[in-house]
Design goal:
With 473 residues, the chain is mostly beta strands. Helix content is 5%, strand content 52%.
């Protein structure tokens, strides 16, 4: 029997009322004491849009619906969303493996959300998504391209404040897990978002924040309101963040994540993966310099064997002064791979639920069994335009293990002893018209290394061009 987040006869009316009823709500403008404006965020549930002040610039329609006071200013409703249109064209997608499309295809996505804050304690949030594509030979890619209509978030939240000004929140329902730089837990901003069902406890005290969560993955199905809880993928964790107002250390993240995933697929085979991930991420900034350091250790069991895996990454960036504001950054990352597929013990790092596209702008090798060097440089020739060029070099960390996709699923097994996966070059031009509208153009060339050249199915280098437009409201 399929598990559901709520009985459908009830949930469809509750969700529809949360999402759509406020679009017909009309209330007069009022002033109220609110929190700090966040602006648009990757996870819309974390946005906050305060009441309009008399000293602010005149409002347009979208600013107006961002804060609609209700109940004589005791609460408010915030309505928003985003539209994204994209065009992708590959020559030799996945090095020629699988169906090919030489003419390109279009990706379409609409997100609408309503944040209903009854008062300072009770909140309901709902977000609905419609994602589709057109013109792709082979049809939509599983999970990431197509979800005709679905709720990506639908939760209730209760907030309390202690006498020492600690904020406590309990959030129950379907929601996102988006932490750090998205290397472990991310909304998967492909055409289709990722979400989970369960509970999250949040505690905030000044510059400190602790999230504790227990959830199951929401399985993405392509139809209308047919997503279901995937009881085979469970996650429990705690994520602590400390922000610093002074000094070179800006932020420190410390986290523990336990995952229990049935039918996990690695080079050595499929089985139940029970994994404990502990790690830390540090963000630094000082006088034009910025850096990010992350270290993760994974322990657990896979089938009848044990797990010992790890990952380390370091990024350093310098922003120069001058009219075109040049910047340069260097990233290195290494994640462990399995030493021997015939041995039941497993050393392959699992990225858990990361970004949809991990390194670069095409969905090839992910962050398992990988050693990476990434050099990037950019300029801003005009106020609203930023141009970035990047170079990637990728190797297998262990020759006993293969290549994995960004989600950590085995893609190409260890069929030869070569380490070099390939080199990738990209050029990105980003136009930021306003905080609402942006347009990005990308061109990428992926040159195969010795490992891929020895794989008969991966017979070609990859060329990719794409353009996308994003509108937030």
């Amino acid at each position: 029997m399929k598990k559901k987040l709520l009985p459908w006869g009830f949930s469809k009316y509750l969700a529809a009322s949360i999402i759509f009823a406020p679009w017909f709500c009309h209330d007069a403008f009022c002033q109220s004491r609110d929190s700090v404006k966040t602006g648009y965020l990757p996870d819309a549930a974390e946005e906050y849009w305060p009441a309009h002040k008399s000293t602010d610039p005149p409002q347009d329609f979208f600013s107006h619906i961002g804060h609609l006071p209700i109940r004589h200013n005791k609460g408010f409703i915030s309505i928003g969303g985003s539209l994204r249109e994209g065009y992708d064209r590959f020559s030799n997608y996945l090095w020629g493996i699988g169906p090919q499309d030489d003419n390109g295809y279009f990706l379409h996505r609409v997100l609408l959300h309503t944040d209903f804050r009854y008062n300072k304690h009770v909140r309901f949030f709902g977000e609905i998504e419609s994602s589709s594509l057109s013109g792709r030979n082979g049809g939509p890619r599983p999970i990431q391209d197509l979800n005709k209509l679905a709720f990506t978030q639908l939760f209730a939240e209760y907030t309390a404040r202690t006498p020492n000004n600690t904020i406590l929140k309990l959030r129950v329902g379907e929601q996102a897990l988006h932490y750090g730089v998205g290397s472990l837990l991310d909304i998967r901003d492909a055409n289709v978002h990722r979400s989970f069902a369960g509970a999250k406890f949040i505690m905030v005290k000044g510059d400190s924040k602790l999230d504790v969560f227990a959830m199951e993955l929401m399985k993405t199905n392509p139809g209308f309101f047919d997503d279901q809880i995937d009881a085979s993928q469970k996650i429990v964790g705690a994520w602590f963040t400390q922000n610093f107002q002074q000094g070179w250390l800006n932020k420190a993240d410390v986290f523990y994540i336990h995952t229990n995933r049935q039918n996990a697929v690695f080079t050595q085979g499929a089985g139940t993966d029970k994994r404990h991930t502990i790690g830390t991420g540090l963000t630094f900034a000082k006088k034009g310099w910025s850096a990010y350091t992350e270290a993760d250790l994974q322990l657990g069991t896979f089938g009848s064997g044990s797990i010992l895996a790890w990952k380390v990454t370091q990024t350093i960036t310098h922003q120069f002064t001058g009219r075109i504001k040049p910047d340069v950054s260097l990233q290195s990352a290494m994640s462990s791979g399995d030493k021997n597929a015939a041995d039941p013990d497993l050393q392959t790092f699992n990225p858990i639920y990361p970004k949809a596209i991990y390194y670069g702008f095409i969905d090839n090798a992910g962050a398992s069994n990988l050693f990476l060097i990434h050099l990037k440089s950019g300029i801003q020739p005009f106020t609203k335009i930023h141009i970035t060029g990047g170079y990637y070099r990728l190797w297998r960390q262990s020759t006993g293990d293969g290549i994995y996709n960004p989600g950590g699923i085995s893609f190409i097994p260890a069929s030869n002893s070569k380490r070099s996966i390939g080199q990738m070059y990209d050029l990105v031009t980003a136009y930021q018209h306003s905080n609402r509208l942006s347009i990005t153009g990308i061109a990428t060339y992926y040159k195969r290394g010795a490992f891929l050249k020895a794989v008969p199915a991966a017979g070609h280098d990859i060329w990719y061009t794409g353009i996308s437009a994003n509108l937030h409201f």
